């Protein structure tokens, strides 16, 4: 079986990023097994980070515990020791054997394993600059520095990303300028190129710009290629997120491939790789 790593279309490689640590849609999120598998294969994989009560980061998406774990309450109010005792939940909400990892646990896991030189672990920081106590920054640097060459740090607050990245030399950065209302705003204004110019100016050191795939396609529908100026600036583009493999989503992926996005975030990289290997 073809490994779900990338799609090569006329010499342009588009990576399939394993969203929240999933190889396939049925996988639970953020398990060490899937993350190690991706890093051994040379895949691109993403996990999220939120701050916990002891001024470190937990590998979770939500700022509350109920949906993803067997815990309750806010991650911000939960100690590192308590988080490590919580089990993750599967897609049906049932507890699984895998437990919640902290950032230092994940980094230690990868430091002790064989990481493919092409592998890229995206740490998507879900907090803002105001949440960054000095202990958070210092702990981040200690954890990430040993594996920094295989990591990219992303988020929607580039000041926060810059502060954290400064503690881990060699760490790449990425920026996501999209929020819940961005698509509607851009459809109303038509100012797609201005949106990209602002993103590039806000994050001058970002290697990757993360864009909701609906925005990329809406711009194309309006006759605007928003990938080209990002490439012209020497950056790469991730289009997020293809949640499942359907006729509609594969049509969207086909368009994204024609537009030469560099990476597609998906909850089912194996399913997409199968469709596009035919």
From TrEMBL:
Name this protein carries in UniProt: Glycerophosphodiester phosphodiesterase
Domain GP-PDE stretches: 4-276
GO molecular function: phosphoric diester hydrolase activity
InterPro entries: GP_PDE_dom, PLC-like_Pdiesterase_TIM-brl
Region forming the signal peptide: none
Pfam family, one: GDPD
GO biological process, one term: lipid metabolic process
Coiled coil: none
